Amino acid sequence: LTVAAFLSSLSTSPYTLVYAHDTQPTSSDPAAASKSKSLTGKLMFGYQGWFDAAESGSPRNTWVHWSSGTPSSDTVTFDLWPDMAEYTDTFETAELLSRNTDTQPMSLFSSWSASTTALHFQWMSDYNIDGVFVQRFVCELSNDGNNNIQGDDILSNAIKSAEATGRTVTIMYDISGASEDTWAADILRD
Hints:
The chain is an alpha/beta fold.
């Protein structure tokens, strides 16, 4: 399927592509622009939902993107520790102890947790960020209708949180690593 054929097939899809240059916001008020169906005038960011933790209850249910294996001083793969004060679902890193005490394990969040997504969207609302492009990897979509269960849960949490906070959610498909022959069909099926 060529890109032209893919775009043409969207005209028969129940979903509509939104182009940023389509329409102008009907008001100079940011809140009004945020509620429009256009991306024009919106401050949008990427939202990957990559991070996971052991015992999060997610389909992966292991440390993902925080470290290569269990987080330790030798395995962490991020530069700055997030401030965890506002998170309700946190997961301890037994190997890493807080610098403030010698006995308290440090904690991290899982992107799979609905409360994590709700907090992120509340921050977006607090700081006038209109919404996000939720990233989905086409190579992780399956042909059996079981499309990326963890990714589906994260997307569902993002949609619910966006509705609760008046934010916008769009999907950004990453086709790196996807089959050259099936990527367009995979996106349409998703």
